[in-house]
Specification:
The protein is α+β, with helices and mostly antiparallel strands and about 400 residues long. It has ten helices and 25 strands. The chain starts with a helix and ends with a strand. The structure holds manganese (II) ion (2 copies).
Length: about 400
Amino acid sequence: MSSVALATAAFAGLAANAQEEAGTQKAERDHSSSDPGQENKPLLDENPSSNLPPPTDQGDIGPIWYSFNLVHKRVQQGGWTHEVNQRVLPTSRDLAGVNMRLTAGSFRELHWHTADEWAIMLYGNARVTVMNPDGTMFIDDVGKGDLWLFPAGFPHSIQGLGPDGCEFLLVFDEGNFSEDGTFLLSEFVAHTPRNVLMKNFGLGKDAIAKLPKQELYIFPAALPLSLAQDKAAVGGRRVESPIQYTFKMSAMTPTRKTPGGEVRIVDSRNFPVSKNVASALVTLKPGALRELHWHPNASEWQFWIAGKGRMTVVMNEGRARTMDFNANDVGLVPRVAGHYIENTGDTDATFLEMFKADQFIDVSLNNWLRRVPPEAVSAHLNLDQELIAKIPPEKELVIPG
Ligand code: MN
Ligand code: MN
């Protein structure tokens, strides 16, 4: 084919695409999109963008939404746990989330696991402990908005405090992580021969007979002593961890504050133990927009804490999907995929952007369009220089509604 023929063929292809697009847009708005058969009305009311997608949506990008309200809740005396991982959200290959409740005094049993554990307190108070392999010990109390990070393999515990225990979100840096697959103190002793336990602990038969025969996992217990008393009881300063494993995220000065809301970024730069998990806690006022952006280094695992919003994820090959989000929902954005989040409710929307990365990194579309020479932007977007100059030049993170 000559170059002219090639160009003509390419143009015809473009024209056909444009025609198809216009047809789709019309179909989505006329009788073609009517649905006289069965519907799950409550579910569709929660997700109008999925029920009738905006005409800009196209093709399939895989699931970008799930909810903790759809997974099995493992309820035990002392609390409960449930998880959203790759099993239910196959696109989430990097991170998995667990939501857990412990009543006052109740323990999440002493345990350890293959993944790093990042956590944010959503309600109440808890005492956490983690031991470094060198025997130095970290013990702290956490409240709403506080974080902790337990490295893979480091033994740790969580106990609900007064007045009403706690609820928290755990994020693990393995997409297929399951909270049911952790290594438990009770199982280590239950499955080691008794004569070996006697030798190891230097204890007699009667003492060994008292040890649990099966997993404890979550179980009720008495409230602990004060933090100072507990620290003193294990050896005080002499055994104190030189490393800080908790962080007060809601008390920190926002990394960015605009009339539209605020963003708090916590990663290895300000919370050094968080080497493999980076986070941003975003609050959007009604109508505000988390600006068009993408993340060069990792996929985004999102957890919705409050309010409601709408997100579109735009992939390569012209694929795009829009979904609505409510509290307790999980969102997923593939690495480098463009996206925005808009607060569509009449209260503040608060959510976490989580990454399997040492740093939170994002590229702002506005910022880029103001750094590229204006004539290049004009050539691409058909905007004259006067209009280009109206685009916010800097990365705002949050744009007011
Ligand atoms: Mn754990
Ligand atoms: Mn993002």
